[in-house]
Design brief:
It is a single chain. The protein is of the alpha/beta class. About 35% of the residues lie in helices and about 20% in strands. The strands form 3 sheets. Strands 3-2-1-4-12-13-14 form a 7-stranded mixed beta sheet, with no helix packed on it. Strand 6, helix 2 and strand 7 form a beta-alpha-beta unit. It is globular. The two termini are about 20 Å apart. The model has no long low-confidence stretch (mean pLDDT about 95). The structure holds zinc ion. Zinc ion binds next to loops. The site of zinc ion has 4 residues, from loops.
Length: about 350
């Protein structure tokens, strides 16, 4: 069904255009739509690309409904069992999913201990470099879109991560490293990880290190929502002990160095997780935290749209341009003035179909 969104201001990656029409045909943004197209009055609203959450953990089919209702039209899972992922990837009319399948972790890590009752987590344990190729091949066979590696101390040694990255790259997979401590970030850097996720809570990434990441082409999904959630849980009164500041300072340094920042929340409903940001709405929390950490509202919008798409190879989405998927969110107010306006959702289109009516 073809649709024309009439009288909408369009996010072009730099700001919003004057109000105009946007045509949708065959699930894609089109040059025009025929005379039979349904016309939707956008009433001067603000049209942005559907949001991409670059770090989630699927909890079941309801996950996709929650995500799309909040305008998140693509979700990148960062560790879930392959059968769960594959059951959800086949569903139409809901958030599109990409996945790592289960993240690789060391049997020596606290992460592995927390996951010890989950059979799929046992399958994801990699004891040493000699096991890396077989482990990565299993992920390729399962249909993984990228490889996730949990760098936890104690846990993987440098040589383990090096071997996993080499095996993943040999199979053409990007590598994503869980690194929530500074020493894990250092291992990730040496191993040539493509995507860092989380931001260290013990010691910030400094300017010189950020410059090296920029030169290497590394990107970061800092999951500030998760890092803040952890601190709110372990040090709620803000007394002596860990604080959120190193995570924010890390983002500030990476942003200043020109490292691409991607929006991701770590949304989950996993009982053993250190915090559980809610699906969908937490993406809006993340955008606010990214702005608080120094991104402009336009940069924050890009972090959840074009920049996210670019660095995960999602070439068919992330912008409002002819031929791209018509994953769209219509807002009442201008998010480049106040990023909180991403919550003022009036409508969501997923591959051209209106999936939620917020009117
Ligand atoms: Zn996670």
């Amino acid at each position: 069904m073809a649709t024309v969104l009439r009288n909408v201001r369009v996010f072009d990656g730099e700001g919003f255009t004057e109000a105009r029409d946007v045509a949708i045909d065959g699930g894609l943004i089109a040059e025009g739509a025929g005379p039979d197209a349904e016309v939707v009055d956008g009433a001067g609203g603000y049209l942005v690309p559907g949001f991409i959450d670059c770090h989630i953990h699927l909890a079941g089919p309801h996950t996709q409904e929650l995500l799309v209702a909040a305008g998140v039209t693509t979700g990148l899972d960062m560790s879930s069992p392959a059968p769960l992922v594959n059951a959800m990837r086949g569903r139409v009319g809901v958030t599109d999913i990409r996945a790592a399948m289960m993240a690789m972790s060391s049997p020596a890590s606290a992460h592995a201990q927390r996951m010890k009752d989950i059979p799929a987590a046992q399958e994801a344990l990699v004891a040493g470099p000699a096991d890396a190729e077989a482990a990565v091949s299993r992920r390729v066979d399962q249909g993984a879109d990228y490889l996730k590696i949990v760098i936890d101390l104690p846990g993987f040694e440098q040589e383990d991560v090096d071997a996993l990255v080499a095996a993943a790259h040999a199979h053409g997979l990007r590598t994503v490293a869980h690194a929530s401590r500074w020493d894990a970030v250092a291992i990730a850097e040496t191993a040539g990880i493509d995507v860092l996720t989380h931001a260290p809570l013990d010691r910030p990434i400094d300017g010189a290190q950020a410059e090296r990441f920029a030169a290497a082409g590394t990107v970061i999904v800092p999951t500030l929502t998760m890092m803040k959630g952890i601190i709110d849980r372990v040090n709620p009164a803000g007394g002596p002990g860990p604080t959120y500041a190193p995570a924010r300072e890390s983002v500030r340094a990476m942003h200043a160095a020109g490292v691409p920042i991607l929006a991701g929340t770590d949304a989950n409903e996993t009982p053993a997780a250190p915090a559980s940001p809610p699906f969908g709405t937490s993406l809006h929390d993340e955008l606010e935290l990214l702005v608080e950490a120094g991104l402009t509202p336009v940069e924050a919008l890009r972090s959840a749209t074009s920049v996210a798409a670019q660095h995960f190879g999602l070439d068919d989405r992330g912008a409002i341009a002819h031929g791209l998927r018509a994953d769209l969110v219509l807002l009442d107010t201008d998010p480049t003035i106040d990023i909180a306006a991403t919550r003022s959702i009036r409508g969501v289109w997923l591959a051209g179909d209106r999936v939620a009516d917020h009117a």
